[in-house]
Amino acid sequence: MMDDAILFAGPSLWGTQLPLPPGITVRPPAACGDLLRALADRPRAIGLVDGVFETGPSVWHKEILAVMAAGVPVLGAASLGAIRAAELHPFGMVGIGAVFAAYRDRAIERDDAVMVSHAPPQLGHRPLTVALVDIAAAIADWPAADRAAMCSIAGRMNFRDRDWERLEQSFVRRTGRRMPPVDRTASLKRRDAEMLLAALAADVVRPMCAPPPETRWLRDLRASA
């Protein structure tokens, strides 16, 4: 088995100041089939942070189960990885960070809480909008009434439109007050993604996962991989 771990990440790691640890290969956000295809490289572990959701099918649960059944640990955090880890942690997927814990404990239930629009790979997947989980973390110290107003505004806004400029304009219109100071560069998703990066650099326990049912869909996916 090769020494490298594979990390699927994009906008959630944008702006990180952490150097990439040796032995980790970063690939773009994962689409359906990418984790199974990664098995051909015999990784020691796979980290799932970001995944596609509009430009193609997302990573499916049975794909992750099949990878773990092949003996490769799968870790998830921050974005789609946090959602899949919350759904599959009883089967051996390792969830990391606050976003994963919130989904696991059902403090968050909507998938778009982690969604953002982002730039293409040529521009490093730079986020163009702000995730709900990052907004909630950034305004945690605001007065309760201001937090409630902003959460209501952000929750009603489509993720494609949810940037700080529009949020500020909507806040002023609704409350008649200036928006309290906020660190627009802070990111809970990035912090969780960095935690997963550190976990991948360490030794990861091999999962004990039974193979998923060999459905026609899974057979077709294996064939395409």
What labels describe this entry?
single chain, 225 residues, 5 strands, five-stranded parallel beta sheet, alpha/beta, 9 helices, 2 domains
Number of domains: 2
- Structural class by SSE content: alpha/beta
Low-confidence sequence ranges? none
- The side-by-side strand order for the widest beta sheet comes to 2-1-3-4-5
Number of strands: 5
Q: Residue-averaged pLDDT, rounded?
A: 92
Overall 3D form: elongated
Element-by-element helix/strand order: EEHEHEHEHHHHHH
Annotation field: number of helices: 9
Strand coverage percent: 5-15%
- Share of residues in helices: 25-40%
Q: Which SSEs are present, and which pair or pack?
A:
Layout: E1 5-8, E2 24-27, H1 34-38, E3 46-48, H2 61-69, E4 74-77, H3 80-88, E5 94-96, H4 97-104, H5 132-138, H6 144-156, H7 164-175, H8 188-201, H9 216-224
Parallel strand pairs: 1-2, 1-3, 3-4, 4-5
